[in-house]
Amino acid sequence: MGEYALRQPAARIGVIGYGAITDEIVRCLELRGQLHTLAGVLGRPEKISALADRAAGRFPVFAELKQLLARKPDIVIEAAGHGAMHAFAADVLNTGCDLLIASTGALADAKLADTLVASLANGADVWLASGAVAGIDGLLAARTAGLRSVTYTSLKGPAAWQGTPARALLGAAARTQRVIFFSGSAREAALHYPQNANVGATIALAGIGLDRTRVELGADPHVPGPLGIIEAEGEFGSFKFDILALASARNPKTSALTGHSLVAAALDGMCFRGGDALRAEMKERQVR
User: Mapped to the 3 state alphabet, what secondary structure does the chain carry?
Assistant: First the structure.
């Protein structure tokens, strides 16, 4: 799937989107005493006045991408969902600015992924953060140590799946016991459950790819919060670990840890190169 490298820490960052993730990014920057590194945030034009009030003069909020890029950020963080990836990702890369992606599930769309690979010719790169996933470093190491299989299981309370295709699949049994309603590849999970499959896609791109990584999604009334279980096996041995990533208070579909991970990725270089993974995915699709 390609070589991976840590990124040089950025001095100035831009952010696309002003929702729950960006609120956590701002909070994290304030805790670190580094809010001055935030060059600006891109918000929805129809909400720009309200968003500017929310920013309260701490950083600028823009209605157009070109305004944000004019501030010369070293890296732009996408924190606005799959739609924003389609709308803005290639434009960021085409200016030569690096892109740090939160909505990794969007990369399951082969057309979008190929467009981004073409945009890398301008010298920029795509970077992926661990997000709510602990153990990404282990997966990256295992790739060259004979990694053969990776399974990611995502369990949430039944109410957390409301507003997704899972709702029609969960029967009365889900109120009292664990129900696995999806089992397939990380690519299929991302395409069918875009609001809930970014973690699976990140694990896949750090490991054996979107088509070989298995994802299971389930409802469980007994879990104390969103529970992720990663299992990997290969020539190196095996590992399994659980991640209880509590949801953001403002958005139950987003982990509270995600924003902090994006800051660590941008300012401390704690991320991995996504461009290599996308190129490898393209080559595998061409072979098939």
Answer: CCCCCCCCCCCCEEEECCCHHHHHHHHHHHHHCCHHHEEEEECCHHHHHHHHHHHCCCCCEECCHHHHHCCCCCEEEECCCHHHHHHHHHHHHHCCCEEEECCHHHHHCHHHHHHHHHHHHHCCCEEEECCCCCCHHHHHHHHCCCEEEEEEEEEECHHHHCCCHHHHHCCHHHHCCCEEEEEEEHHHHHHHCCCCCHHHHHHHHHCCCCCCCEEEEEECCCCCCCEEEEEEEECCEEEEEEEECCECCCCCCCECCHHHHHHHHHHHCCEEEHHHHHHHHHHHHHHC
- Range 13-132+256-287 has CATH code 3.40.830.10: no
Q: Tell me the fold of 136-244.
A: Dihydrodipicolinate Reductase; domain 2 (3.30.360)
pTM recorded for the entire structure: 0.92
Q: pLDDT for 79-107, tens place per residue?
A: 999 999 999 999 999 999 999 999 999 99
Q: Give the pLDDT confidence of 14-38 residue by residue, as tens digits.
A: 999 999 999 999 999 999 999 999 9
